[in-house]
Amino acid sequence: MKQIKIFTAVLFGLSFFSCNKIIDLAPQSNISTVTYYSNTDEVRAALTGAYNGLQKPMNNEWQVTELRSDNSKQGSPGSTASTNRDLSDLDMFIPSTSHQGIYTYWLNTYSNIHNVNIILEKLGVVYNPSTGGISLSAITIPITDVDRKQLAGEAMFIRAYHYFNLVRLFGGVFLVHTPITPDEAKTMNRSSAADIYKLIEADLKTASGWMNVLKFSQINTNDLGRATSWAAKGLLAKMYLTLNRKSEAITQLQDVINNSGYSLQGSYANVFSIGNEMNSEIMFAVRYKAGGLGLGGIFANNFAPLGSGAAVVNGDGLGLNYPTAELDTATNGDNRKATLIGVYGTGTAAKLYVKKYISAVAILNDAENDWPVLRYADILLMMAEAQGYNQSSIDYINMVRPRAGLPNYTLATLPGVAAFEQALQNERRIEFAFENQRFFDLLRFNVTMTTVTSIQRMKDHFANEYYSHYRTYVAPAPTLAELWAQTTPEHMLLPIPQREIDTNTQLQITQNPGY
Amino acid sequence: MKKINCLLLVSMLMLISFVHAQSKVITGKVINKQTGEALQGVNILADKAKGGVVTNADGTYSITVKSVSKSLIFSFVGFATQTIIIEDKKVIDIALVSTTTAMDEVVVIGYGTQKKSSVTGAVSKYQNERLDESPVSRLDQALQGKIAGVSVQNVSSEAGADPKVRVRGISSLNAGASPLVVIDGQPAADGLQFVNMADVQSVEVLKDAASAAIYGSRGASGVILITTKSGKAERPKYGIKFSTGAKTQYETYPMMSTTEYTNMLYYEAALKAQDPSIPVPTGTAVIANNERAAYIIENTILNGHGTDWQQEALRNGLVRNLQMNISGGSKQVKYYLSGGYQKDQGMMYHSEYDKYSIRGKIDVQLSKKAKFTFNFNPSYIKRERPSVNFIDFVRFQSFLPVYHDNVTAAFVNQSAQWAGIHPGDFVQARHFNGRAYTGLMPDGTLYNSGATLLDPFNTANNTPKSIMETHTINANDYRVVTSGDFTYTILPGLDFKSLASTYITYSTGIDFTKRNSSKDGEVNKGIYNQRLVIDLLSENTLTYAKTIKDHSFTLLAGLTGEKTSIKDDQQTGLDYPSDNITALATALQVVAPSVDANGVPQGTYNLKNQIGLTSWLTRVLYSYRNKYLFNASFRGDGSSYFAPGHKWGYFPSVSVGWVASEEKFIKNGTSSWLNNLKFRGSYGVVGNNRLSDGSTTNNGVGYFPYTDLLYAANYSFGAGTGTSTAGQAPSTVILGNEDLTWERTFQYNFGFDLTILKNLLTVSFDAYQSKTEKLLLRQSALAFTGVPSYWNNIGSLKNTGLELEVTSNNIRKKNFKWTTSGNIAHNKNSIIELGLEKYLLNQGERTELYYNNVGDPLIQFFGFKTDGVWLSQADIDAAKAKGLTSTLSNVFVPGGLKLVDLNGDLKIDNNDRTVIGNPYPDFTWGVTNTLSYKAFDLSFTFQGSQGGQLVNGDPNYNETKRYNRNYNTNRWLSPMFPGDGKTPYSTVGFNWMLTDYVVEDASYYALREMVVGYTLPKKFVEKAHISSARFYFSGQNMYFHSAKGYRGINPEGRFNTGPYNSSLLDGYQRGSFPMPKTYLFGIDINL
Predict the structure, then answer these.
(1) Which one of B212, B346, B563, B1018 has the minimum C-beta count within 10 Å?
(2) B1050: Cβ contacts below 8 Å, ≥ 6 apart
(3) Shortest CA distance to B539 belongs to which of B558, B511, B565, B514?
(4) For B653-673, how does the pLDDT look when each residue is reduced to its tens digit (9 = 90+)?
(5) Could you report the per-residue pLDDT of B792-817, keeping only the tens digit for each?
(6) Chain B residue whose CA is closest to A48
(7) Which residues does chain B have within 8 Å of residue A223's beta carbon, measured at their own beta carbons?
(8) Which of A34, A95, A289 lies nearest to residue B721, judging by beta carbons?
(9) Predicted ipTM > 0.90
(10) Is residue B723 within 8 angstroms of chain A, CB to CB?
C-alpha cells in the first residue's frame, strides 16, 4: 500500500513539470517582429513608430548643423566641461573621429532607417540600386492598394529625409535599403554620394506619386503631421537644388506653390506658436508633445541659459546652443528677432539664448514645440534661389519680408547678382535660424550661387566672433589663424564614426579625408 | 524539560543505589582527544543497561553502578564510542576520539554528499568557524582571499552592494558569469545576498567542470554550495551573537579647496612669468575672472572656510548585527531556528541596509524508511540608496557652502531674483551669479570686477548635498524561500528524494524627488517600482548506494524542472501638492508609458517575463578499496532562452582519483609521515545560457534573445498639439539571433591533495585548462544596421590556471596553537578564435577601447602609447621638421600628451593604436593566520591581487581632475617649467581617454580582516549558567596598499553598468567609492 502511495507521489512530482511546457515560452510583454506587420493597422502602428524615430536624431542634429554654421556657437568659452568640449570641437571643425555626438546622431538615424526598411519590406517595396527604380512585389498582408501606397510613401519620405541629411553631413554613406543582418553589414562598404542621392530621388519621386494628393485644407486634421505628397515634392526640390539641378527643382516647387494650398502665416511668431502647431506653413515637422508622454522635446531645457533657475524654463537650462553675436546684430530691427533670440540677465552678465523652442515645461525635457523640417517659406525662398537673379525671385523673397517688418527689395535695391545672393542668403539665414538649415544652405550656396561660399562665410564668422568669443577660451585659446586653418572644405564633412571602422574587421572602411 | 528528566533519572538511580547497597560511584572527566576540551553531554552507560548519565559542562560525571557491572560505555555524537572495563577503578578519565577527522569529512557535492577522501574533482570546502565574525556584512565578502580560485571583488562599497564573484577567471562573456549559488540544494537566484553568515555550516565551491557538470547549464561559472546549520539530537541549545561597530572611509580623493587651487594658479603664473618663451600672461590666462570670484567668495565672504564636499557625503556608518538561534531535537525530530537582524549603514549618508531574517529547518524521521526536511526562510530587507554619486561630491567646488547663513543670504538677497533666500536654505551656485566681485587675490593685489558681472560657477545643477537630501530612493525586499524534501528508502540503499521549493521575492521601491530638487522649477516626482519573482523548482532523484566487498558505488538519476516568472511594474506620478505626501493618489498626473533612448521602459508600465529550465541527470560514483576512484555524470538541459531546435544542451563529465597513500607499497615506510596523498584528474563539460542579468534594462530582450521584439514608440498626429497615437518599433539596442544556443565549457583538471606529518601540513594543488566554445556574447554590430549590438554565439576562449592551498599547523601545543593557511591562484585566458573575426573592438562610455584579439587575453585596453608630454612648441616643431604629421585633433599641443608614432610612418593616426594593458591580475592570493593562546585568539587575513590594470575614467572630466592633486602635481606649465615631463597640463592636448595615460596599475594588498577574541574561562561562565561566552574585536581593511601610479582611491572599484554590462568590456573605473574601514566589537554567548 505504502509503496503505491510513494509511486503516486513520484508520478505526481514528475507530471508537475512536463518538460516542454516549461521551456516552450513566448514573450508576454512584447510582440515579436516575426508575427507583427500582419495587417494594415499593424503596419500603420509600425509607421507611427518610424515617425517616433525621427525624434532621436533631432536631439543631436543641431550640433552637427547649426552649431557648425555661423548662427550658433558653444557659448561657454570658460568651460572645460566635457559636454562643452565636445561641442566646441564641432563648432571649430575639429571633432574627434570618436566624437560621441556624431556617433549618436549616426546610430539614431540608421536605427530609424532600419525601422523604415522593415516596414517597406513587409509592404513589398523593392528598391533596385542599379536602376534606381522602385517596384512592388507580391505580399500576403491583406491591405488595399491605396493604403499600401500611402503607408509606403510616408515610409519612403522618412527614409529619404534621413539619407538626405546623412549624405550632406558624411558624404557617401552605407546604402541600406532593406533590413540587413550584422553579418551582411560586414560585407558592405560605403556607397558613393551619387548612389545615395539616387535612392533619395527614387524614394521622394515614388512617394510623391503614391501618396494622396490633397490640398492643405483638405487634409483630414487627424492626419496632420504625416508626410504628404507636397512635403515629398518640397524635399525633392531641395535635393535637386543641392545637386544644382535647378530646373527640376523649379518644376517641383512650382507644383507646390500652385497646387498645395499651403500658405504663409501672418506673423512669424505664429508659425512656431505651440497654440498653432501644424499650421498652413508647416509642410513637415518633427513633432513633440508635452505632458509626460515621453514625447516632449529636450530643446527648451537644452537651450535655455545655464544657471537661470526657473526664470526662463522650469528645470533650468543647459545653455548648449548660443546664438552668435553676429546673428544678434544681423537681426536688429527685424521682427523675427523676438522669436529667435532671448536675453537672460542684464548688463555684462546678459546671456543670449535660442528662444525658438522654448515653451513652459511641467517636467524636465518635455517641451511641446515641434521642430520644422520643411516650411512653405522655404519653398518660396528655394524658388528664388533656383530661379536666380530676376524680378520673380525678388518677389518671392518679398513674400516673407513684410512680417519681419522689413522693406521690400527691388531690382534697384539689389543691383546685381552679388547683392541678390547676399540678400537671399541673409533672408534664409534669419528666416530659418536654428531650424538646422543654415549649415546645409551654406554648403549648397557653393553650387547654387556664384558669390557666396561656405568656407569664406565661416572664416568671416570666426573673424567676427574672434575677439569677443574664441579668444576668451581657457588657455591655450585657439588663434584665428588656427581656426581658419581648420576651416577646410574637407572639414565640412563629418568623420565616419571611428566605431564603424573599428567594428568591421573584414573590410577596410575609408575615413573621410582630413580626419 | 530534558534537564529535569535527567535530574530525575539521576536521583532515581541514586535512589536505586540506596536500595541496592551493592553499588558503587564512579567519577571522572571526558575530554576531546584532539583539542583537549571538556565534552559536555557524553552519554555514559553501565554495561548495556538503560538510563545512564551524561557529562556536565566541564566534562565531569558521576555514575552509580551496580557492583556487578563490568564496563562503562561512553558515547557521543561525532565521536567513536569507547567501552572501558571498570575493574576496581573509582575514577575513569577518558579522551574520546572525533570520528569526523579531515579524511572522513563529508563534502557536499551537487545532488548529494561525498566523503572528502573520495572526491575527485576540484572542490574547496570552507568550514564556518569564525566566518561570521568577519567585519563585513555579506558572506561573499567574508570569503575574499579564503579560497584559491575564487575571486571576490568589491566593485562598489555601497551598503549591501553585490561584489563581483568569479570562479577561475572568466569562462563566459555574458551577464551570467557569476557562479551559481545553491543553498541546501536549492539554487538561489539572488546569489549570496540573503545568506546569513551565522547560519552557514560550510561553503563548498565546485571549481572544475567535472564537479559542476552535474549542474549542467548553470555550472559554467562554478558552483558555490552553502550548507546551513541543522539541529542535532540533543538538548536545546541557544546561541546569541551580537556585534556592533563603525565603518569609515579608508581614504578620500586628494582634492584642493578653491583657495588652494587659486594659490596654485598664482604660483604657476609666477613661474610662467619667469619663462621668456611665453608671452606675458594676460588676466584670463592666469586665472579666469569667474575663478577669481569663486576665490573671493571663499576668502572674503566665508573668511576662508571652504566646504569639504567629500565629508558632506560621508559619515561613520553604524554596523550592527544580532543573531540568535535555537537548535536541538530528538532522534525523530531535529530543528534549527534562527533569527537575525543586521544593520549596515553605508559610509555615505542615505545609504542604509537593514535585514531581518528567519531561518527554520526541521528534519523529521517519519519512519525507518521515510524522512522529511522542511526549510522555511523568510526575510525582509529595507534599503535606502543615496540619490547622488559620490563623484559628484568629489568634484564639487569648495567655495560654496552647504547652507546659507546670515552673511551669504544677505549677499545673495541683493539680486532681485534671489531676494527670497533665507539663512538655512540650501546654497545653489546660481545664487552667486551675475554679480560684481571685489577682493584680494593670493598675490596681494586687489581685484575688482567693476562693471563686469561674473558667474563664479555656472551650472544648471544644484549642489549634491541638496539633491541628496531632497531625492530619496527607498526599497523594501520581501523574500520567502520554502522548500520541502522527502526521502523514501525504497530498498536498502535505494533512496527516492523529491524536493519541491518555492522562492518568492517581492520588492517595492519609491524613488521620490521633491520639488526643485536637482533643478529650479522641477515638479516633484514619485516613481514606484514593484518586482515579483516566483521561482518554482521540482527535483526528483533516485540514489542507489551499494558496497560489495571492495567495490562501492553510488548511482544517481534525476529529473528537475524550474520555472521563473518575473513581473515588473512601475508607476510614475508627477506634481504632488506636498513634498511630504508621497501617495500616488495625490499626484496631479500619472506619466504615460514610453521607452527611452536605450529601450528601457519609462514612466508607467508592467512587464511579464518567464524563464524555464528542465533537466535530467545521471551520475555514478565508484571506488575500489577507497583507493581507486571513478566518477562520471551526464546531464541534459532544455532552456527557454533558445529557439525550438536549439533548446537542449548536454553536459558529460568524468573524473578519476588515486589515493596513493592507501597503496601498501607506499604505505610501508611512509606511514610515519605521510597521512594522505591523492591524485585527481577530471574532464567535464558545463554550459551557460544565462543571457540576462534580470534587470528591466532593454525590456525583455535578455529573456528571448532569439527573436526581435517590438517596443512602444508613439507619436503625435493631428491639429494643434495633436493626439498621441500608439506606435511600435523594433529594439534600437540589440538584435536577436534565432540560431543562438548553449555555450559550453570543456575543462581538464589535475590535482593532488597531500597531508603529512600528522596533519601538520596539508597541501592541495590544482592545475586546469578549459576551453569555452560558442561564446554567448553581445557582439558589437556596425551601427548602420540600426542597432549597436546583437546576440551571437561565436568564438572560443581558453583559460589555464594553477591553484594552491596550503594549511600548516605550525604550533599545536595545548595552550598555544598557530595555524597558517594560504592560497594563491593564477589564471590566464586567451581567445582561441572569434568565428570569422580576427578581433573585436568595443567602445566604453568615454570612447576608450577594449580589444578582443585572437591569441591574446580576452580583454586588452587599446589606444595610443604616450611618451610624456610635448615640452614646448620647439619640441613639436622639431618633430614636425622630421616629417611627423597627424590629421587627428589636438595632437600637437605643448603640455599635451605626446603620442608615439608606433609604426614609424611619421603619421600619427589610428593605426598607431596598440595594446596598452589588460584587466587581469597575474595572481591573487590570501593568507590567514590563526593563533590562540589559552583563552585568547587572534586571526588575520592578508589578501591581494597582483598585476592587473584598470582604465581610470575620472580624468575624462575636467571638473573632476581640476582640483585633484594627483593630476596637478608636477604638471607641465611652460617650456621652462615642464614639471616632471610626464604630467600633461590638465586641459590641453589629446584626449587622455584614448591613451595609456589613464591605464593604471590595479594591484593591491590589504590587511583584509583581523579578529581578536577572548573566551571566558569555563568556571567563570558556569556560574552564570551559560556554556560559553566570547568577546571579540574585528577590523576590516586596517591597512590597504594600492599600487604606485594609481590615481583613484579604490583599486577594486569597477563599473558594471551600461556598456560594461558586457563581459567584453571590463576594467573601467569612474568615481570609485572609498574603501571601507570597519571596526566591530562582538559578543557570542551559547546556552
Answers:
(1) B1018
(2) B154, B157, B1069, B1072, B1073, B1074, B1075
(3) B558
(4) 888 888 888 778 877 777 778
(5) 888 888 888 898 989 888 888 888 88
(6) B727
(7) 717-718
(8) A289
(9) yes
(10) yes
